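Course assignment 3, question 2. Fill in each field.
Student: A.L.
Task: Predict the tertiary structure for the chain below.
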Amino acid sequence: MENSVVEDKPNITGPAGYVLEDVPHLSDYIPDLPTYTNPLQYNPSYAFVKQYFVNVDDTVAQKIVVHKDSPRGTHFRRAGPRQKVYFKSDEVLACIVTCGGLCPGLNTVIREIVCGLHYMYGVNKVLGIEGGYRGFYARNTIPLTPKVVNDIHKRGGTIIGTSRGGHDTSKIVDSIQDRGINLVYVIGGDGTQKGAAAIFQEIRRRGLKVSVAGIPKTIDNDIPVIDRSFGFDTAVEEAQRAINAAHVESESMENGIGFVKLMGRYSGFIAMYATLASRDVDCCLIPESPFYLEGPGGLFQYIEKKLKENGHMVIVIAEGAGQELLSECIRTMDQQDASGNKLLQDVGLWMSHEIKDHFAKLNKMTINLKYIDPTYMIRAVPSNASDNVYCTLLAHSATHGAMAGYTGFTVGPVNGRHAYIPFQRVIERQNKVVITDRMWARLLSSTNQPSFVKPEDVLQDKKKKEERPHSKLLNGEKC
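Answer field:
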């Protein structure tokens, strides 16, 4: 992928520390653009809506709860239909592209973009770009109509295909320009959104009247700013099947251990929420919370203690947890996939062997361990009811924003209200489980597992805390 620097639009500031992190608009670089009446004004479906349109000055606050001395006042532009649009319906040629790994809800987002454009704005020309970003210049397109997409939300995967990598910004924009595309909807994770930001920059450099809208996608829920990612609820729900199977297997044998590996490359949200939802899990291991195997307070000691107490146990591990424990000879720290993600070893399989070997050496306890990896089963299922509704709102927010001339933005709920967020905010870092937060404390309370922190680390951390001034109030993220 080509390197690009996302230029920030100047923030709008106001009294009491108010800051609006605004998103770009076509009128920023194309002067004297004509506007048109929003077709929603004449849509019978919206005839009984009290307020058709979002006020121009409506914003969404990033934080609701703030400390009296903490930074405050950061807002994003509220999503929704505007009174004026910048595209004539019969002149619009939209395209949709999906990139990266599969995620429940992809087809729902595609369906609702197509149907939203058609039924709300009278747009009849929508193309599906086959096979991810490289499809712009290497593959055919699929015409998408309400009839074509009518039932696709009942299927997993994506009907237009996906891929990793293959991003050549110049070629992509050449294709957009040659085809006469003027609305681009990009569905993907942080790498995909970086690509969308680069596409927007090139489009702006060429002065093209093309809106680029992103819909953030990651099953791991690791995109910052937004409340959650679509597909996450479905993933947590589907993970219950694997955890339940592990529980049944472990209960049915003497010293049975059900060992489940769930998705979570850098963030352990799926493992944490699936554990809390299940109530059958005795130990949850995530990337944000280091653990060790041998010695007092280690995982092996905890497993032995739990088996002696209950005769069985269930362990859940996120795929990115414990990677540092894998021996140097099988680590692939410098290898990456086509999206630039670090290739991870199968820590679940490795850990299951380590546990078996440890207890085999003890010769005093025979264990029966069953390893379950439902990774691809979880991400390939159709989205559940909650995610279907959420995907509809995301698709409609993106549709309204692009038609209103906003560009270079991604959509998502911030404190329950959908907003337009600059690309740079969702690609600047990854959202992670905060192990000093109440939610992780709730998990530890639910499983009764130790924190697996070494005594020397506790002393060192205690010393650091004594050197820092005490905070009287939790700000919602850190202690």
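Instructor remarks: The chain has two domains: 12-229+383-427, 232-380+449-467. Residues 1-6, 470-479 have pLDDT under 50 and may be disordered.
Grade: pending
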